[in-house]
Amino acid sequence: MLTAIRGRSVPRIKLLAGGIVAFGVSQKHGKPYLLGLDERLSLGLAGNIVQFLDFAFKLVSGTRTIYRSTEGASEENSALQTIATDLLNLSDQLTISTTRGTTNVGPTLRRIAFDCQDVALELVRVLSTLQAEGKRRIWKSFLLALQEVWKQGEISRLNGRLDNLQKDLNTHLLKLLL
Which of 58, 86, 119, 127 is least buried, going by the fewest C-beta atoms within 10 A? Predict the structure, then answer.
């Protein structure tokens, strides 16, 4: 439905807030404009635009990083994968030595080592899905960057869990030395 506002024909749009917002293109200047936008709504709209731009920037910079990297993954994910793999190997050696009876460790240290293995394996599995294989292309790098953004919560959760387990493991190993 078109309505004349200040001599211009523009569509009228009702918002949930109950106000009417007119959007159109100025006939004089050819530029789009909004009329009647509440201050709270304009602040919300500005916040949404900034959030979208932040997401787009992270996505573009992630795509660029993955495309240019030698490993086919972002530097942060490569470093995290190296740490998880090292901790996996360390906990694996610890569980092997405890099953052979070469170390005087209790069930608590054994449980921590097995938990470290489980979490490290899960983290390595998630991170390996975020690594480009074969010839890298821009589109493939973009899709990996998008997956990285989507899986960031899961990566952070696993990383935090692994960090806590590593601290527990270090504490118990130091206790053995004393």
Answer: 86
